């Protein structure tokens, strides 16, 4: 995923789209492998789009497709693909239907500029569409619009077997279970195990996230993790996040 | 900045460290230019560290320096720099002072493994240190620890002139002011102007963020932006975020 916008890098805005997309892709059986946040700088955006689209099956971008001078994403995508860009008739028609007479000024019409060969992504919130070109999906930065665009393109994405997940938590410090957890990981190379420490009310606790596409193996590894926590005096609980 | 961790990419955890660092760096007069989020995969981490440290003055990482098998950041950094890594005496001494007798097991001692030539970054929360090697600052992923580490290294960073910022907001759609805003940007190339639309209670509003190191130019451009909003019937207010 590529997040485009100075406001994220300056600390003015906390990005919400990467977190949303990460959760949705996991549900769809697609693994998000990298997120980059870059500023509104043409050369940087073009280089990042080309690096990501060459590396991954799908690329998703957010930000920079509005009507103002700092909205340069669509032009950057066209340059990254080496294609032309102009007002696209269908995108223009949608904007004309949306805006009252006289309101579709030149600036707003910029939102109908779509790279040649791209297909539109619906925007049920504020009409101005995103677009898909090659494996790159270009969407708005405003979270409500980004989420609606993801919803409209999700049925067209091809996911793998969903990654199943269980999260076991106990009031045992992670350094205490680290050696046994490492051995467990070696026994279950097909179950990905992550360890996340937390400190609440002065007490150390550890959340172990186990992930696999195989439910039987996942359940067996989870039972073994319960036993490890109990060996160190912790009473594990389970949290069904994700 | 490089955020390391499967939990962010799976959507289990919403990253908080990039947002925190972005705000702190802006205060210090340092511009954050890129954030990458990568999984706990050695080759990916090494490639990202080497790309970022060659491109930027400073690199900051978060995540992957705990005691468990999935904490591979320190080893990846050593490989990225082509140096050795071993238990460092001062880091070991700190951990020995922190843990009760018998609690400093082999797994926890991994947290004292520091690449050759690195200097330690203090961790007032849970002792296990971060480290700096070359222009790369390696810190913990737990937000409270990450923030404490940033506080301890901030005095040693060299910032430029602080970027001053004003944010003008009005209930005018951004497409309405886009053309005048574009002209204003051309008149003030030394003032960076970003436009951020919002939709609240069915009404469209626009926040214009103006940034410059020159207060007089910033104030003049801000006054001009007030005038533009008023011309379209909006009563601007100002928000002192960042």
In short:
Two copies of one chain form a homodimer. Chain A is an alpha/beta fold and 242 residues long. Helix content of chain A is 39%, strand content 24%.
List keywords for this structure.
homodimer; 242 residues; alpha/beta; Molybdenum Cofactor Biosythetic Enzyme, Chain A; Alpha-Beta Plaits; 2 domains; six-stranded mixed sheet; four-stranded antiparallel sheet; 9 helices; elongated; CinA (chains A, B); Competence/damage-inducible protein A (chains A, B)
Low-confidence stretches of chain A: none
Distance between the termini of chain A: 20 Å
CATH superfamily of the largest domain in chain A: MoaB/Mog-like domain
Oligomer: homodimer
Overall geometry of chain A comes to elongated
- Number of beta-strand segments of chain A: 12
Helix content of chain A: 25-40%
The radius of gyration over CA of chain A amounts to 22 Å
């Amino acid at each position: 995923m590529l997040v485009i916008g100075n406001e994220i890098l300056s600390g003015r805005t906390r990005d919400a789209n990467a977190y949303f997309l990460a959760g949705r892709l996991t549900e769809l059986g697609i693994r998000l492998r990298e997120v980059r946040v870059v500023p509104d700088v043409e050369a940087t955006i073009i280089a990042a789009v080309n690096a990501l689209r060459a590396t991954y099956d799908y690329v998703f971008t957010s930000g920079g497709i509005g009507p103002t001078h700092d909205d340069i994403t669509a032009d950057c995508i066209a340059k990254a693909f080496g294609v032309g860009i102009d007002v696209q008739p269908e995108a223009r028609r949608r904007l004309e239907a949306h805006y009252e007479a006289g309101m579709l000024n030149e600036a707003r019409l910029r939102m109908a500029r779509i790279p040649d060969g791209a297909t539109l992504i619906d925007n049920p919130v504020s009409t101005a569409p995103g677009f898909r070109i090659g494996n790159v999906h270009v969407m708005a930065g405003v979270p409500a619009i980004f989420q609606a665009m993801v919803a409209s393109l999700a049925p067209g994405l091809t996911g793998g077997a969903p990654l199943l997940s269980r999260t076991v938590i106990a009031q045992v410090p992670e350094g205490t279970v680290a050696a046994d957890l490492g051995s467990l990981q070696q026994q279950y190379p097909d179950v990905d195990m992550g360890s996340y420490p937390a400190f609440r009310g002065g007490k150390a606790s550890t959340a172990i996230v186990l992930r696999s596409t195989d439910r039987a193996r996942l359940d067996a590894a989870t039972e073994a993790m319960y036993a490890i926590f109990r060996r160190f005096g912790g009473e594990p609980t389970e949290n069904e996040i994700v």
